[in-house]
Design goal:
The protein is α+β, with helices and mostly antiparallel strands and about 725 residues long. It contains 23 helices and 10 strands. Strands 2-3-1-4 form a 4-stranded antiparallel beta sheet, sandwiched between helices. α2 packs across α9, α13 crosses α22 and α21 runs parallel beside α23. The longest helix has about 35 residues. The N terminus is likely disordered.
Amino acid sequence: MRSSERSWLAAPGLWAAGAPRIAGLLLLGLMLAAMAVAPQLRFDPDIYRSFSSGNPHLAAYADFLQRAGPKPRHIVVLAEADEPMSLDAFEHIRDISLDISLLDGVGAVVSIGTARFPEDAAVHAGQPLLPLDMHAKAFPERLRAFEKSKPLSSILLTGDRKAAVIHVVVEDDVPPGVPLALAGAVSGLLDAAAPSGLRFAITGEDLIGPEIVRALKDDLVLYTVAGGIVALVFAGWLFRDARLILACIAPAGVAGLFSLAVFVVLDIPVTVVNNVVPILIFILALADCVHLTIAYARDRQSRDEDAALASVIESVGPACALTSVTTVIAFAAIFIVGDVQIRELSLVGGVGVFAGYVAMIVAFPVLVRMLRPRGRPGGASPPAAIRRLAIRAVSSSRKTAVAGLLVTFAGLVMCWQAEPWFTLQQNLPLGGSVRSAERQVADRFGGFYRLWVEFPHGAVESDGGDAARRLAALSKAASGYPVISHSLVMAWSGGEASGTLPFLSLLEPQDGIERMVVLMPEPMRSRDTLQVYDRVERAASNLGASLITGLPTVLRHEASVLVYQMALSLAVACVVACLLVALAFGRLWIAAVLVMPNMLPLLLSAGLYAGLSGWRIGPSAVLALTVAFGIAIDDSIHFVSRYLQARDRNAPLEAALGQAANRAGWPMAITTALICAGLSVPLFSSFETVRAFAGIQVAALAVALVADLVLLPALIHLRENRR
């Protein structure tokens, strides 16, 4: 298919060039509509909504929660001291606990200050740890006696006595916004009552959402401001002409505006997963604008403005359209992943890229017609050096292809060594107070994620011996993490489970089952915690457990499911995109030569990332690879397009490859640098997963440029010579 036959791919741009006033008015109306709906943008505060991948462990946990009833809501207050806490510190914690219990919306408060000795304790049975008339001399012995009542004491106080927690249980029937207001009231009490020797921090699920929303808004402002600066710097350095700069940047800005409107139109909130979409679309549109503007500025030197504009839209526009299509395919491919937030990313990314392309290809000719720019591309362009690099690769094409195959295989081997890895902490804002408190609670107390284990109740011996052996075996496997059974709860509370933490009432035998709960951190917090979790899961299975579930189980197995689904989506995107490009160019052999230059960067960057991360790879990394593929193939398309245009003019093979490198190589280099610069902005995101997403894309795109300038010409040369 010749270039003129592919011009239908740039039909919106050709129409806008022929009817700039009508196109301009239509574009202006759409921009005003986008600005009108942009303030309706929503931000998702629910960190757990992403757990929907079809993981069977997730389905089992959902069923358990449905049977167990409403999930209790807690606010956890961490009290820390530099030295072991004195009686005064414990009494302050007791007084603060009592003050908190009087706040509206508080159902119960459990702390070291309100704790009682178990009913079966050898001494002080059923008595409070801190009676109002506690004497300083008697307190050390009393505290030592209480510390023997494990695991109750270890839930409330660390072994070194330098940290304690206050569990604030929110009433079940309060409105959704009350826990946040309650947390503010608790903070006020802590600020007013905290003694000089104690430090307090607050965490809890109801506090995570607002902190995520604040961080998402901050990131959006960062991306907008920093992305605009990147665009101005690059365009200013490259063109050094105000009208050319405006013709290049403004269409990308329109594309970015439309991407924000897509969120509102599709009624999809901004999340930790999709918050990079607006800057990504802006940068991709800007890269296409750079290709168009460079070509226009060059052609304008030898022909009149209208002819140059039509020629550029007809010759470069189809390649820009194909690059958008391949990026849409990459986003569409990840829709096969069951996770709801990733599917939302697929939708807003795919629709946003399409809308951004249409906005860009229409806005560019409208602005060129309005501005009539006459400048030339500036910058120290080295097309000759790029051409020499491609020709050198072509001259030893067989060796280049073998080297590329070896590097691709090495990347595949490194990826194969990586273990799927995911932690919930990565989705919490870096530097946030809640994340810091969560980490401190996990460090000091091992965390409070609940792993539920169910046994058939009918198999329990009448004397409780079987249950005791199960408790002992699970406690041994848990390596110090608290394991709690119904008998322990009854001993603490004297038959009133609600006298402790409300969720412990679920341990009461019911529906023919007996439950135990293990309090532990995220399994993938470290390799040590992962080993403990796996040991507990194996022990529970060996003891005849009918169900092992809870957030730790979901987190343990979710990574494997998501990584597999995303790897499949990457394979689908690669096959479909390469075939589509080949069909668009009318030459099926193009699909074969595109695979290695575009898979090598992905496998190599993923393998290096896994190696630097301790041979771990998370869902966000594989997601980044799929999106990176949709972007990386853009340079391949521009190179192949220029090569085929040269061949259509009957240029010899080596000359055509040299012309392609000369015409497309420099725009490829600067647009890759531009995209990498734009994607470097999310490296300063508030979220660890977003930083990983951006870092892998930058690495993959940088390697992809080299592959397209070296490996792709060599593979084309090998294939054409075989004819």
